[in-house]
Amino acid sequence: MEVKAKLSYLRMSPKKVRLVIDLIRGSKTEEAIVQLNFINKAAKKPVLKLLNSAIANAENNFSLKKDNLYIKKIWADEAGSLKRWQPRAHGRATPIRKGISHIHIVLDEIQPTKQKTKKVKKTKKPVRISKPEEFKEAKKPIKTLEATKAKPISKEHEKEADKEILDIRMEGKHRHKQHEEKRQLKKNKGFIKKIFNRKAG
C-alpha cells in the first residue's frame, strides 16, 4: 500500500534539494533516517521532517509497520522563484532568483500485508409507528360577497367629512386674517405714495 506526503513552498532551490533526495531514493526508511542525520547539507532537515511525517501517516492511518517500509518515489518540483536585485558597478543592477520547491514522497511496503476486511453490519429497517388520531378542526365559515359589501355611512361620519380641514401651514404671518386686512390697506395707500416719491428731473 502506498503512503504519500508532501512539503509545499520550501524556501530552497530544487537543485539543492535533489542533492539530498537522490541519496535516499529506493532505500529503507530506517536506513534513510540514519543517512540523513550524517549528511552535511542544508536540505537534510526539511527532507527528514517530511520522511517522518510520511512514516507517521503509514502507522496511524493505515496501521503499517515502520520496518516494512521503503522509499518508492521521492522528487522535488520547482515552485516559482523570488526575484531580488543586486547592485553592480556604474549604477547597474543584476537580478537574483531565489528558488522555491515542492517535495513529494511515496512510501510502499517491502512485503505486502493482507488488508483486513471489515464486516459490515446489516441495519434493520426502521419500525413504522402509527401516528395518533388528528383532531379535526372546525371549519371556519366562508365569507360571502354579500357579507363583505361596504356598510352604509352613518350621519356622524358624513358630518365629519363635511368639516373643513385646517392646514397648519396656512396659519403663517402673511396668511392670517389680521395681517391680510393690513396688507389690503397698504395696497390702497400705495398709489398716493408713489406720486409724492417721484423725483423731479
Write a short abstract of this structure.
By secondary structure, this protein is of the alpha+beta class.
Characterize the structure shown.
The protein has 201 residues and is of the alpha+beta class. The chain has two domains: 3-109, Ribosomal Protein L22, Chain A; 156-196, no CATH class. Helix content is 33%, strand content 22%. The chain is built from five helices and three strands. It has helices at residues 14-24, 29-37, 44-61, 155-162, 177-196; strands at residues 3-10, 69-87, 93-109. The protein is elongated and about 125 Å long.
Mean pLDDT: 81
Order of helices and strands: EHHHEEHH
Strand order in the sheet with the most strands: 1-3-2
The gyration radius over C-alpha positions equals 49 Å
Major sheet characteristics: 3 strands, antiparallel
Distance between the termini: 122 Å
| Total beta strands | 3
The CATH class assignment of the largest domain is Alpha Beta
CATH architecture of the largest domain: Alpha-Beta Complex
Strand content range: 15-25%
The number of distinct structural domains comes to 2
- What name is given to the CATH topology of the largest domain? Ribosomal Protein L22, Chain A
Shape: elongated
Q: Helicity range of the residues?
A: 25-40%
Structural class: alpha+beta
